[in-house]
Fold each of these.
Amino acid sequence: MANDSVINVCFHGIGTPQRELEPGEDRYWISEELFGAVLDEIRDWPGLRISFDDSNTSDVGIGLPALLRRGLTADFFVLAGRLDSPGSLGPEEVRLLHRSGMTVGTHGMRHIPWRGLDPAAADEELVTARERLTEVVGADVSTAACPLGRYDRTLLARMRRLGYTRVFTSDRRPARALQWLQPRYTVRNDDTPGSLRTEALQGPSPMSRLKLETVGVIKRLR
């Protein structure tokens, strides 16, 4: 890998869900045992950056203690519209993440794709949600993760105008440290520490790499 390469690894739910899951979401919930094993695998990877999406209560109940025991930090992308909802983080838990040295970013308001939103909905997702989280944390919230990994050039241009300093996606490939758009490897329940290591460190075949890069280009330009 290049010296400025970053490997973003993203988690969602850990353990038993405490809320009703969306269709297909169960694939992104992993056992506490797998979570610990993956953390132990990746903790010494070069250029590692960890993140959590969806603001599940497991972020604080399981994720945060495991990170602190290993001396790791992470970005937590919070859904402002789910604050204090069953199974989701509340304001005090979000503040705890911030006090513990973690970065709090926005995942929007309602966990809907941001691509193709009308102006009012886009304002709610990209502006109002961010303002609410900034108020909760008491510090600027300037990073975001695109729900469901969906984006296009119109969305990215809007987010640049709004002053977001870094935007995270679900494109499974390495990033560059100073890149504004940060692809991530999302951990799924059929992953293992070994499979993640093979994919992220050894990389895909040349043909698969070309396909991944092409998909990213299409998303950015469409």
Amino acid sequence: MAKQSQNRKKVEKTDNIFRYLLRWSGLELTDKRWLRNTLIGLLIFVMVGVGAMYGIAKWYMAKHADEPLVYGATFIPKYAKSFGLEPREVLHEVIDDLGIKRLRFVSYWNEHERVPGEYNFDELDWQFEAANQSGAKVSLAIGLRQPRWPECHMPGWAEEMPKDEWSKHLNAYITKVVERYKDNPALESYQLENEYFLSVFGDCPDHSKERLVNEFNLVKSLDPSKPLIVTRSNNAVPSWPIGEPRSDINGASIYKRVWDATVTKRYFEYPVPAWFYGFLAGGAELTTNRNTFIHELQTEAWLPPGKRMNDLATIPEQNKSLSPDQLRNRMLYAEATGAKTIDLWGVEWWYWRKQAANDPGLWQTAKEVIADSKN
């Protein structure tokens, strides 16, 4: 009886709290059934909403179920060099040993136009040559914002210019890049301005939609035959392109385990089920008739500030956010989204672990999953 009395008091206390909150907000609770019905209504609304999202995800997965699964990878010579690696060797191994025949290359403005009006594309030329020799296909990142920190790769000579001036130089550079590679047999698509609207990440001078639309129209006028991709970042809603420009293909990144440097100061795992990304892709296809692929799957460690990826001493820390087992699970998670094109991130790091640390676990794991995906 005493226990029942205590429980009754707890219920009365909770009820009094609801009454107080309603009175404080200018409402009166005259019928307890009103509160119950409201909560039930909200619960039904959430359940119906989640059910609809899940239904769209399953529709998307079923629609694309018979399409072949293709793994690709981002390759950046500058990043390979940061590990003391020879970029040509790394690219050769990515293609021949991992069996990857889809590659995302970058065209950093500050590397190919170090002096205004003087262009040197030797670094990009040999990559395209390697792709052609192996039968690989290339998705070429173009524009100011491209993969890897600081995200926007502006040459020093343009940094002090006002936007209306540097944007003219940027458009001239984009024109040079497109005209040079648009007829290359390996080129399959362009990716314009990587995760353009993600203003909270990277060192970038401008995120205006007007510039993105202008660049989109420029590239389309130069090469209307190639698909033009616009990408968004993971779960960051403000980074989703809405309306114009209407890309030919949508790209989405997926990051699962990151270091929270702002609040918790610890690793954070996004609690998002794989089908959620199937819902995003399905929703986009239903509303825009455009398909979505994973342009950047987090298959690289995310270290706390102050720790370097190319330091052997940080390998135990690296394994906290991406071990071989986590890599396998991450790739299988991506497959479970229903996406049929999945571009991997961090192949240069895997190769460094294999060569410098005599630790082939990541490389071999990826190789096995990629091989299984072809069966």
